[in-house]
């Protein structure tokens, strides 16, 4: 066995570990607490009468989504893009100033992540796109009702909270 057979795989493992470490650092630069605090100001809980509108098959699973994207800054950047897109809709029931503050926080997080996303552009954004398209379809099906927005809001909040926990290495 030559040194190339040993050194090349070891170098690839080190390179991958280095990239993962850099991605964790980038994700850690997001002001998660501020972002989540602004999100909480929009709406804290799902109203008891809205729970009956919850339809799992028309929503994405935040746990599965976060496991899929984990420390991939390109996909987390896409989550930020889609979050800003869905909250940027005129039909949401949240106070305009509070919604804009949250959207600006999401856009700023996306800007912080962008330089870290030096992956090939062939990375598929399909999982993120499908997730947010499901939520958009859910909102449309429910005529952008307050209950539909509360449910989408709770789903988004859970996703961002899980991403925050990933960035902290599970310390929270």
Automatic annotation (TrEMBL):
One of its GO terms (biological process) is defense response to virus. Keywords: Antiviral defense, Cytokine, Disulfide bond, Secreted, Signal. Residues 1-21 form the signal peptide. It is found in: Secreted. Its main location: secreted. The keyword Thylakoid does not apply. Pfam families: Interferon. GO terms for molecular function: cytokine activity; cytokine receptor binding. One of its GO terms (cellular component) is extracellular space. The keyword Disulfide bond applies. This is Interferon-upsilon. It comes from Acipenser ruthenus. The lineage of its organism: Eukaryota, Metazoa, Chordata, Craniata, Vertebrata.
